[in-house]
Amino acid sequence: MTEYLLIALALLGLLILGGIGLVVPRLRRRPQPPLPRTEVDTRAEEDLAGPPVQAPEADLSTGVLVEPPVEAPAPTVEVPEPTAGRLVRLRSRLSRSQNVFGKGLLGLLSRDRLDEDVWEEIEDSLITADVGVDATRDIVDRLRERTRVLGTRSVAELRTLLATELVTALDPGLDRSLHTAPKEGVPAVLLVVGVNGAGKTTTCGKIARVLIADGRSVLLGAADTFRAAAADQLQTWAGRVGAETVRGPEGADPASVAFDAVKRGIETGVDTVLVDTAGRLQNKIGLMDELGKVKRVVEKHGPIDETLLVLDATTGQNGLEQARVFTEVVNVTGVVLTKLDGTAKGGIVIAVQRKLGIPVKLVGLGEGPDDLAPFDPAQFVDALLGTEPTGQTA
Ligand SMILES: Nc1nc2c(ncn2[C@@H]2O[C@H](COP(=O)(O)OP(=O)(O)OP(=O)(O)O)[C@@H](O)[C@H]2O)c(=O)[nH]1
Ligand SMILES: [Mg+2]
């Protein structure tokens, strides 16, 4: 009996132990119940979510560094300076050009009489100032003739005569106005051409500012499709004065971008469309043909009102041959001589006009947005010779 009792107790013990063995592991595996969201749970939301996952840059599938979007500041439209009297205001920039003339004239003024040395000094200073050999010979010949006829004795008088001759050499009667006004509701079209780095894009931007300051509406066409940066550069200028830019994808046909720009200008009824082109060397036939195509395609809308050739004054006489080729491909109606602030040889203006027979209409006198001035021969010669303005203004 006792044996049965013991066996029953042992079985009971086994049953209890087995039961515990089955239950305990299950209890261990059971997940913790989530903490109830109550007022007593002080853990912050982000703590619950865990730390933010930051994918290392190398893990980005594209392998491209993705920059965070920059919030564009609200555009502020600038009000450009009026153009009146700019050449006078920028006179000090030109005074660097006086160096060459100035030095020659200083020597000249130190003499009492007009002798051969004086004539040589005048000749030297004109040639050194980039006036060009032919133009210098003409100017000096005329000066000698006039002094003989007038019986000029003093060097001071000669100086005045020289100023007159320089103005004459700049052909003051030439029409230097920019044809930018719309005709019968159709915008005027300006094409801007030249070699690399001459200042075409900057000049387009500066002209747009001048026109907008005069109350005109302007559209800019970025027909320099070689580099996206070129169109960006133009768009930045346009954005500053609130003008629209028409551009194409990088590598697009510049003629079609120019065509689209004029088309858009006609549709929106702007006053002037300015077409910036890529810099090209005059000896690259393919590029010059491309420029010819830009001109022809734009002319499907109507004649181009103004084709401006932008020349860098610091390239001196070398720039003249380049310029001649451009005039053969497109019908250049005006020259913009840039970087006159960066040369001591302002005489290049005379050489350019003489060689090309095309008026210098504008001069660039700095990198600033308003450092562009209408060209005026009398004011220019006054600045060049360091004399007081003669009262002849544009
Ligand atoms: N000092 C001075 N710098 C100028 C003047 N005009 C333009 N520049 C500078 O010349 C450089 C070239 O100007 P851009 O307008 O880019 O010349 P670009 O002809 O459009 O050049 P590409 O399109 O590359 O052929 C820039 O650094 C301008 O700031 C000027 O009148 N004076
Ligand atoms: Mg450019």
Would you kindly provide a written description of the structure presented here, covering whatever features stand out?
The structure is a single chain. The protein is an alpha/beta fold and 394 residues long. The chain has 15 helices and eight strands. It has helices spanning 2-29, 45-49, 86-89, 91-94, 98-109, 116-128, 133-150, 155-169, 200-213, 228-240, 254-268, 285-298, 318-329, 348-356, 377-385; strands spanning 188-193, 218-223, 244-247, 272-277, 306-312, 334-338, 360-364, 372-374. The chain has an eight-stranded mixed beta sheet, sandwiched between helices. Helix 13 (318-329) links the parallel strand 5 (306-312) and strand 6. The longest helix has 28 residues, at 2-29. It is elongated, with a radius of gyration of 38 Å. The model is unreliable at 17-70 and 388-394 (pLDDT under 50). The site of magnesium ion has 4 residues, from helix 9. It catalyses: GTP + H2O = GDP + phosphate + H(+). GTP binds at residues 194-201, 276-280, 338-341. Residues 359-372 form the SRP54-type proteins GTP-binding domain. It is a peripheral membrane protein. Residues 31-58 are annotated as: Disordered.
